[in-house]
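Q: Could you fold this chain for me?
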Amino acid sequence: MDNENFNMSMRKFLKQVGVTSQQEIEATVRETDLGDAPTLKVKMVLTAEGTGLNHVVTGEIDVG
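A: Sure. Below is the predicted structure, expressed as structure tokens.
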């Protein structure tokens, strides 16, 4: 495994995930009636085809 290529490829993927996820969350907050909810509960699930990877991250985003 070429660590330099692996790291560059992984960083590119994670940047894409971060940017597109932020855009989707912002659009959802704009377009959805969240009522008086001060937070948006979120969950990100990471899988990798052909592996047993199943990483779940949960959290809350302050929208108030």
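A (continued): The chain is about 45% helix and 30% strand.
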